[in-house]
């Protein structure tokens, strides 16, 4: 099921057939170093199935597959999900395979993901969270109109919180 499209990308629900893609992304330490620990194939399968089940109980929320239109290649994931420590607050997120870095896809996902969020959710603020060393994602968020609103701790990691108000 397609969630939304951008000029160059299709954002759709993951299916069980995406296990290899899901593992390639979430098992890649370089990709997830600022998100969570990399997973093995068994953990990826469990997470994928949980994610697919999440769609049914949380309309217009979840982690979705990002497909490059020109090649039909799996490029990564895009997410609208609750903040772990504050479930009532929703955050935008993305992860791309290294071969898709530096192509403007993260900015494109955020640019088109914001109106999707506000069209389908009643909240007036969309959040984003990055680890302090993740300067590339911080630049994407700032360039996309998010403002930095402070830090929070997750274990020993310093996370920076961003927010974007409903237009």
Top keywords for this entry?
32% helix, Aminopeptidase, 5 helices, alpha+beta, 37% strand, 167 residues
Question: Can you tell me about this structure?
Answer:
GO terms for molecular function: acyltransferase activity, transferring groups other than amino-acyl groups. Pfam families: Acetyltransf_3 (PF13302). InterPro entries: Acyl_CoA_acyltransferase (IPR016181), GNAT_dom (IPR000182), N-acetyltransferase (IPR051531). Residues 9-167 form the N-acetyltransferase domain. The protein has helices at 19-26, 29-32, 41-57, 105-120, 135-143; strands spanning 2-5, 9-13, 62-68, 73-83, 86-96, 125-131, 147-154, 157-165. It has 167 residues and is an alpha+beta fold. It has a single domain (2-165), classed as Gcn5-related N-acetyltransferase (GNAT) (Aminopeptidase). The strands form two sheets. The protein has a five-stranded antiparallel β-sheet with strand order 1-2-3-4-5, with helices on both faces. Strands 6-8-7 form a three-stranded antiparallel β-sheet. Strand 7 (147-154) and strand 8 form a beta hairpin. The mean pLDDT is 96.
Number of strands: 8
**Radius of gyration, rounded?**
15 Å
CATH architecture: 3-Layer(aba) Sandwich
How many domains make up the 3D coordinates? 1
Indicate the mean pLDDT.
96
Give the C-level CATH assignment: Alpha Beta
The major pleated sheet works out as: 5 strands, antiparallel
The string of secondary-structure elements, in order, is: EEHHHEEEHEHEE
In whole angstroms, the N-to-C terminal distance is 27 Å
* CATH topology grouping: Aminopeptidase
Q: Total helix count?
A: 5
Protein structure class:
alpha+beta
| Strand arrangement across the biggest beta sheet | 1-2-3-4-5
Shape: globular
Q: Point out poorly predicted stretches.
A: none
């Amino acid at each position: 099921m397609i969630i939304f499209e951008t000029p160059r990308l299709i954002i759709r629900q993951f299916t069980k057939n995406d296990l290899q893609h899901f593992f390639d992304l979430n098992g890649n330490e370089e990709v997830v170093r600022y998100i969570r620990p990399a997973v093995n194939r068994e953990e990826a399968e469990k997470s994928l199935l949980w994610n697919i089940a999440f769609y049914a109980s949380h309309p217009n929320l979840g982690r979705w597959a990002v497909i490059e239109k020109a090649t039909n290649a799996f490029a990564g994931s895009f997410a609208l999900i609750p903040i772990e420590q504050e479930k009532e607050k929703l955050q935008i997120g993305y992860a791309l395979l290294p071969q898709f870095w530096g192509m403007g896809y993260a900015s494109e996902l955020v640019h088109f993901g914001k109106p999707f969020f506000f069209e389908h959710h009643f909240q007036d603020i969309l959040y984003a969270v990055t680890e302090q060393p993740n300067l590339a994602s911080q630049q994407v968020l700032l360039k996309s109109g998010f403002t930095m609103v402070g830090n929070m701790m997750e274990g020993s990691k310093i996370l920076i919180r961003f927010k974007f108000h409903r237009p």
